[in-house]
Amino acid sequence: IACAEANATLISPFVGRIRDWYLKNTNSKDYNI
Question: SUPFAM superfamilies annotated for this entry (predicted)?
Fold first, then answer.
């Protein structure tokens, strides 16, 4: 998962922001993307 997140960050840093937004709006620490 870490590698996938790293690749996603390299491809588009915005993906990380979407993930953060998702976590904040769902109030969930456990997730699969």
Answer: Aldolase (SSF51569)
Joined tokens for residue 10:
């390299």
Q: Where are the domains of the chain?
A: 1-32
* pLDDT tens for each residue of 3-33: 666 665 565 667 777 878 777 877 655 655 5
> Is the full-model pTM beyond 0.85?
no
Residue 32: partners with Cβ closer than 8 Å, 6 or more residues away: 1
Any idea which residue has 């993906």 for tokens?
15
